[in-house]
Design brief:
Layout (H helix, E strand, L loop, with lengths): L2 E5 L2 E4 L4 E8 L4 E10 L6 E6 L5 E3 L7 E6 L4 E6 L8 E10 L1 H4 L1 E5 L3 E6 L1
Parallel strand pairs: 2-11
Antiparallel strand pairs: 1-3, 3-8, 4-5, 4-9, 5-6, 7-8, 9-10, 9-11
């Protein structure tokens, strides 16, 4: 059982910035990879960025150089700093966590409720 709560979404101007955060709760699982996905209307959900517990990162080509993912393991929180926002970034952003619950619970994937990011031109 892991609950993910996102915050920081909202309205931004093109060229502006937003910082998303996602706090994970649940001590019976060890959070491994955390990431951010997004889904625009009529489109497939896509990976935006992900980060391992050790800090290795991976970004979608469309956001490289503009977005930065980071995490605080002590707080079980992942962040997404979004700079130079474009209208094309408008989407619902979802926090994701891959967790290990040991032998009995196994590996599980968890999702946040999503937060809407709207970028106006």
């Amino acid at each position: 059982q892991v609950q993910l709560v996102e915050s920081g979404g909202g309205l931004a101007q093109a060229g502006g910035s937003l910082r998303l955060s996602c706090a994970a709760s649940g001590s019976e699982f060890t959070i491994n990879v955390m990431g951010w996905y997004r889904q625009a209307p009529g489109k497939q959900r896509e990976l935006v960025a992900r980060i391992t517990r050790a800090g290795s990162t991976n970004y979608a080509d469309s956001v490289k150089g503009r977005f930065s993912i980071s995490r605080d393991n002590a707080k079980n929180t992942v962040y997404l700093q979004m700079n130079s926002l474009k209208p094309e970034d408008t989407a619902v952003y979802y926090c994701n966590a891959d967790a290990n619950g040991g032998f009995f619970l196994g590996y599980r994937e968890f999702w946040g409720q999503g937060t809407l990011v709207t970028v106006s031109s």
